[in-house]
Amino acid sequence: MATRLFEGKLHASHYQKYRISPPQEIQDLILNYLDKRLKKPFGLAVDVGCGTGQSSRSLIPYFQNVLGTDISEAQIEEAKHADGFPNLVYKACAAEELPVQDASVDLITACAAVHWFNIEKFLKEVDRVLKPHGCLAFYTYLPDMEVHYKDRSQQLTQVMKEVQDALSPYVNEKVQLVRSGYKEIFDVIPYTDKQRVENIVSSFSMSLKDVLGLIQTFSMYQTFLKVEPEKAKDLLETTEKRFLEIMQVSSTETIVELQHNYNCVLASKP
Ligand SMILES: C[S@@+](CC[C@H](N)C(=O)[O-])C[C@H]1O[C@@H](n2cnc3c(N)ncnc32)[C@H](O)[C@@H]1O
Question: Where is the Methyltransferase type domain (predicted)?
Fold first, then answer.
């Protein structure tokens, strides 16, 4: 079953403001993989479950055309409001029914998204649309993250862990696929040329305000907000206070380093 937790307009606007673009390490990994299997210039890349387009926009320099798709109209509307690029279009549609021709796609990506899809149907659709030797790249960050600031990293990371613990009753079962590093998804990919890369560590400099914004993009936070709105808002306010106290600063514009671990599954159609 596909799972739809990203439909709200406010959720989509948080996405546009606070979602992180895929790190360079992931882009390099995917492009090196593709380079060994397809001739340049690369034609069409399709980024499925694109949200507000951060992951689609990262593909623009390397492909003649990029299509970003998402089942949520609200996410696609926000994506369209971001800077326009002539070789990038967005469409609202299900991952399991992509609006592209058979054997027309060089690369299919899904960033923090494939675990939400109906995997069996999606893989059939991927097989239909990929060219021979076309590639897929499904990658995601893991829920646990570290926050670094001067000598306060341990305490800040502990606060982040406690936020994750508070949100744990609202975690959808599909997130288990993320926790296991997409192993189950890797196992059902029908191609023999495939690999799973774990523990790709990436650091992002961002303001504390952006870290708090990022928490609000998590599906589990949005579920918490629906079920217990006051408690959810309180969690954010308390977290902000704790961060500021630990860092001994007064502004949420203060820059910290957020460290994420990514996993990536790559495969190529025969
Ligand atoms: C965690 S977000 C990731 C968005 C974006 N790729 C990013 O990294 O910021 C997952 C996205 O998958 C989309 N999604 C979930 N199920 C889908 C489906 N069956 N078909 C297409 N998109 C889907 C959601 O609407 C949501 O925007």
Answer: 46-138
